[in-house]
Amino acid sequence: MRSPMVRGVVGAVVVAAASLVTSVVPASSWVAPIALRHSLPGRMVGLTFMVAGLGLMAWAWLTVGRRVMAGERLPLLRMTACWSAPLLLAPPLFSRDAWSYAAQGALVAEGYNPYDVGPGVLSGHIIEAVDPMWMQTPAPYGPLPLAYGGLVAHLTMDPYLLMLAHRLLAVLGIVLIAWAVPRLAPACRVDPAIATWLVVLNPMLITHGIGAAHNDVLMLGLACSAFALALTGHWGTAAVVAGAAAAVKLPGGLVVIAIAAVMSPLAGRVLRFASLAIAGAVSVLTLVTIGALTGVGSGWLGALDVPGLVRSPFSLANLIGMAASGVLGWLGEDTAAEQALQIVRLVGIVAALGLIAYLSLRSSIHYAARAVGVALLAVVVLGPSAHDWYFLWCLPFLAVARPGRRLTTIITAVSLIFTIAAPLNSSLRGATIPILTTTALVIAIALPLLNHLRTLQPARKVPVTAA
């Protein structure tokens, strides 16, 4: 256990084993009969081991970071593979979204339009683990994952196998991130080893990406690859890949900010606007073409408000809106209270769009990564919905934006917290004892690790090299 490689693997194995008890699975799944799943003491044992395993992974990651920043060269990609392997066959961690992906693919295979109907029109095992909140809602995802899910569903309707197929997309996303980040870092004067540690080996990316099988990771991998391709001079290809990223989830298309900066480095606003128009047009054309070729279409644009049904505390707009609504309701202004949240959310969206426009026209090639990272962070914080794994969107871009000690420490702290606290998810909704116990465990494990953040040294800057 002195070796961070071994410590991380042991942590991942413990997390995978605990997921057999804590994760929501279809009643028909091979996991469902496990006895510990069906009693409160058994679930508490599972949650205890889950938090402990995540703590081991976070501890190992922090140890590796200290050694990398001291100049030691470690096999970071091999560590990533070893830490990820135990999670490949495990049930989805922390979230039930992967079961929704499986059901939405089944909708496509059965000839339904997933942008008109929800998984509730289906019956059988395929919808057993879908969150009831999303049973009647249309899919807010792009055509790529839905078309892929439909193809796999033609081969099998087993929800567990369909979930594993979507996990393969997350694996592909991490592979793309692992390819792109070491190429982006030197161009932004950042040590590739530090950037790779901060992003690729990050336990938040591994557990929320591969473990939870979120398609956000594929979006992120395509967006990072688009930026890396732009740095090699392949702007057209980069814009096409950016369109593919948007065809997974729309925020991935914001990487065109970086592509435009590479197309017209140190140019004036007129040329920058022209570059944005060209890159944006190619990306939009790619997005529309993917929808047409897959037969899924672009109806998902009308379902982008579906995630907003969750009033997430990670969204600043939600927090302000809910506070304003509560105050107005207390004052007896019921009509205004009902409208307050929607108005504040609208203001947040407008503010995010304004910031994105500002970043698009002012970012240069050397600040392109930071511009994309800040733009994606604005979408998360000011948007109508945000989950803990949404913060992965800005992680690679901020990590290669010459972060320095303060930003590196912030990124590390957020990653540690969102890794260890991940079990406090919607599957614990209303379960008071598990929530309180898990919170106490998270605090007990996270605080000692956060206390060691001051030992991290500033990320070293390296000379610019060819991407």
Notes on the protein architecture:
- This protein is an all-alpha fold.
- The chain folds into two domains: 4-310 and 387-454, no CATH class; 311-386, no CATH class.
- The protein is 62% helix and 0% strand.
- The protein contains 18 helices and no strands.
- The two termini are 37 Å apart.
- It is found in: Membrane.
What is the secondary structure topology, with strand pairs?
Layout: H1 4-22, H2 40-69, H3 76-84, H4 97-109, H5 143-153, H6 159-187, H7 192-199, H8 203-211, H9 216-231, H10 235-246, H11 256-263, H12 269-294, H13 316-330, H14 334-362, H15 368-382, H16 395-399, H17 404-420, H18 432-451
GO molecular function, one term: glycosyltransferase activity
Protein name: DUF2029 domain-containing protein
Keywords: Glycosyltransferase, Membrane, Transferase, Transmembrane, Transmembrane helix
Total beta strand runs: 0
Q: Give the termini distance in whole angstroms.
A: 37 Å
Largest sheet: none
Class of secondary structure makeup: mainly alpha
Summarize the structure.
This protein is an all-alpha fold and 467 residues long. The chain has helices spanning 4-22, 40-69, 76-84, 97-109, 143-153, 159-187, 192-199, 203-211, 216-231, 235-246, 256-263, 269-294, 316-330, 334-362, 368-382, 395-399, 404-420, 432-451. The protein is built from 18 helices and no strands.
